[in-house]
Amino acid sequence: MDAKELKALKKKNKIKESKVDYVYYAICGFILFLLAVIVIYPLYYIIVASISDPDAVMTGDVWLYPVKVTFSGYAQLFNRDDVWRGYFNTLIYTIFGTVFNIALTIPAGWALSRDYLPFRKLINVLLIITMFFGGGLVPYVILCRSLGLYQNPLILIIGGGVSVYNVFMCKSFFQVNVPKEVLEAAQIDGAGEIRTFFDLVLPLAKSIISVMVLFYAVGHWNNYIDAYIFSIDKDFYPLQAVINGLLDATAGGEGDVVLEQMRVATQIKFTSIIVATVPILILYPMIEKHFGQGVLVGSFK
Description:
By secondary structure, the chain is mainly alpha-helical. Helix content is about 75%, strand content about 0%.
């Protein structure tokens, strides 16, 4: 069959779209456009407001473009030593905390995916119970105090070391993506459980590991409430706690000071959102190619 005959066959078998189909496509396109605007515009507004004059932002003059462009908000934010210290603290908590989470979650998911794990069903039931019932904040604080973690920055790294939901996502991933033939071949070659896990399983788990890194890293990056709950020294505050403290410090006042405090609070509010979000926006594209596969396959069951 030559090219002309193939083209004629495709044209013959092509399904003609009716006017109703075009109306349907137009409605779907319009709805998607509205959803895109709803999602994108707030992010765009934050960027525009962060470089606009605070008086224009407070009076509602900023909508689609910056008004009286100024970077004084960023200057005020980055000229503070506590902000840089908070950035450094958060990086430490995020990096080491994520490594700690991954070191617990991935092996746990692999172990639960094996049918020969002793008391596997009982362990599954106990883990599921913790997803619906918890001891509460007070017992948690008492436990951490008894372990010497109260007023200890280490709690921001090892606190909440395992997410049961993430463990089950890893379990489903391993059940679907690790062929039994590969494991049987490893056993025939004399590989034990540890060598099989590190040499065969982990190379096949790049997708789910990427997803877990993103989930845990975002959790650590946005975590600030634990710094208040466990009365962490201000020198060890994460970035989010530092920014929250700046916003509280600029609230209130008397007389002519109120307006200036509102101007400073407006600038810091938008610039701090940008500063705190940029690292996560940088991280996501690095692991995006693995994210879809890891989430879909890991949560399939």
